[in-house]
Amino acid sequence: MTLTTAYWCVLIAALLPYVWVAIAKGGGPRYNNRDPRGWMDRQEDPRTRRANAAHANAFEAFAPFAAGVVMAQLAGVAEARIAGLALAFTAFRLLHGLFYLADKHLLRTLSWFGGLLCVLALLVMAALQVGR
Question: Where are the transmembrane segments (predicted)?
Answer without folding.
Answer: 6-24, 82-102, 109-130
